[in-house]
Every structure is written in structure tokens, then in C-alpha cells.
């Protein structure tokens, strides 16, 4: 005799189908954005390079010979022109990089997320089943926090490197006895870049954001390992349902603490009134 099917199997499959649609739309949207950035960068590289070389020739005319630089830029310009022509002819029949396509994909993604939410609200699953589903999503949450942590850490390291190298370079240029006029403008530009990097670092707090995200990801991963191995706070819990409920509550607490820290970092720095 055939076994009776789970009454929630159909709704769960539809919910998973919504999730697959969301993931597909996210991949398409990400690919379209990267492709658009690559095309725009290639098309704009030639005029930008010509503008930079032209300005360099104007400001160094009669003082510094940059003939070698001009000669070296000629093959680069030709290569960029050829690449632009190839991209132009190969993407003329494709619309997966245009603004209208990206906007449409973004709207489709928002609608797919809303459909999934409405379907999940009407899906009557037992509480324990919902907790098991929640537990399976925890590794994705950990990966999300770590990806964001790496993003903020990378930005912080770039700005810190700019501050260190720029400060040393500015001190070296300023220490010259007779600074030629071109180097004075370079000194002004370096000082401006250092000041801007320091201001962005202090205002947006990239290091603090990276630290808190890494801390939260490590804490959630530790809870997941403790729950899976039944160690730590789950060591003496013989009831799996109670342990799962405790695990869900603990992870939600960690995520809530992370959101509160994020809100605190988003608050502007208060200055004491004089």
C-alpha cells in the first residue's frame, strides 16, 4: 500500500520554487550589473585616457618631456578602441546590460520576494518544522555576515594604506628644499586624498562594522557547532525540540544585538556644545 503523502509537501515545494525564482533573479541582476559596469568602463576609458594625457601635456609643456608617455599611450588607445568596437558589435542585439533590463529585473525580484512572503504567511507549518527550516538557513546567515565583514575590512585597509602612504609621501615632498611647482600641486592633491580618506574612515567606521560583523558571525557559528555536537549550553538537554527552541532564541538574540550595533554605528557622532 502506498504511503500517505505529507499534506504540507505541496505548499513547501511551491515555497521552494519561489526561492529558486528569487535566486535566479538575483543572479541575473548581479550579472547584468557587472556586465553593464564592464561595458561602460570600456567605452569611457578611451576619452578619459585622452583627457588625462592631454592635461598632462598642457601642464608639463616646455618643462618636462613626456614623449615616451605619449608613445606608450598610443597602443593602449588603439586597444581600447578595438575592445569598444567588439563590445559594441557583440552587444547590439542583447539588452541584458541596459538600464531598462536592470530595472525590470529589480522589479521582478521585489515581486518574487513579495510572492514568497505571501505564500509563507498562508503556509501553516508546525512550529518545530519552522525551527528546523530556520536552522538550515543559519549557515547562509553566517556567510552573509562574513562577506559583509570582508567588504568593510577591504575598504578600511584601502583607506588606511592610502593614509599611511600618502602621509609619508606628503612629508617627503614637503621636506624638499626647493619644491618645483608641479610637485607642489602633487603635494596638495596627496594631502587632500589623505584628509578625505581619514574623514571617510572616521565617519563611516568601516573597522568597527567589520569587527562587529565578524564577532556576530563567529558567535552564531559557535552556537551552531554547540547545538550540532550537543556541547556547551546544549550538553544536558536531552529533548531535541527544547534544544532547537533554545538555539533559535539564541541566534535571534545575536542577530538582534548585531542590528542594534549597526544602528548605533549609523548614528552621527555627537559633538559637545560649546
UniProtKB/TrEMBL annotation:
Statement: the UniProt record of this protein carries the keyword Metal-binding: no
Q: Where is this region: Disordered?
A: 255-274
Q: Where is the sequence biased in composition, kind Polar residues?
A: 264-274
What's the superkingdom here? Bacteria
Segments passing through the bilayer: 34-56, 68-87, 158-177, 183-204
Sorted alphabetically, the keyword list is: Membrane, Transmembrane, Transmembrane helix
Membrane in keyword set: yes
Q: What is this protein called?
A: SMODS and SLOG-associating 2TM effector domain-containing protein
Native organism is: Streptomyces tuirus
Amino acid at each position: 500500500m502506498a504511503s500517505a503523502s505529507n499534506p504540507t509537501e505541496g505548499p513547501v515545494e511551491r515555497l521552494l520554487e519561489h526561492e529558486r525564482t528569487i535566486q535566479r533573479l538575483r543572479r541575473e541582476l548581479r550579472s547584468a550589473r557587472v556586465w553593464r559596469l564592464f561595458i561602460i568602463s570600456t567605452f569611457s576609458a578611451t576619452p578619459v585616457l585622452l583627457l588625462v594625457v592631454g592635461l598632462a601635456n598642457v601642464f608639463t609643456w616646455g618643462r618636462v618631456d613626456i614623449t615616451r608617455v605619449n608613445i606608450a599611450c598610443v597602443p593602449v588607445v588603439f586597444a581600447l578602441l578595438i575592445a569598444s568596437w567588439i563590445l559594441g558589435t557583440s552587444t547590439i542585439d542583447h539588452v541584458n546590460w541596459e538600464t531598462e533590463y536592470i530595472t525590470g529585473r529589480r522589479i521582478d525580484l521585489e515581486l518574487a520576494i513579495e510572492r514568497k512572503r505571501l505564500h509563507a504567511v498562508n503556509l501553516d507549518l508546525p512550529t518545530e518544522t519552522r525551527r528546523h527550516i530556520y536552522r538550515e538557513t543559519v549557515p547562509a546567515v553566517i556567510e552573509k555576515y562574513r562577506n559583509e565583514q570582508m567588504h568593510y575590512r577591504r575598504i578600511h585597509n584601502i583607506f588606511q594604506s592610502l593614509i599611511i602612504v600618502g602621509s609619508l609621501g606628503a612629508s617627503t615632498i614637503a621636506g624638499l628644499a626647493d619644491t618645483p611647482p608641479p610637485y607642489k600641486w602633487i603635494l596638495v592633491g596627496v594631502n587632500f586624498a589623505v584628509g578625505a580618506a581619514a574623514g571617510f574612515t572616521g565617519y563611516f567606521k568601516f573597522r568597527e562594522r567589520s569587527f562587529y560583523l565578524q564577532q556576530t558571525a563567529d558567535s552564531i557559528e559557535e552556537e551552531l557547532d554547540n547545538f550540532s555536537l550537543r556541547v556547551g549550553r546544549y550538553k544536558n538537554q536531552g529533548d531535541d525540540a527544547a534544544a532547537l527552541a533554545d538555539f533559535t532564541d539564541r541566534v535571534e538574540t545575536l542577530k538582534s544585538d548585531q542590528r542594534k550595533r549597526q544602528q548605533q554605528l549609523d548614528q552621527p557622532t555627537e559633538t559637545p556644545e560649546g
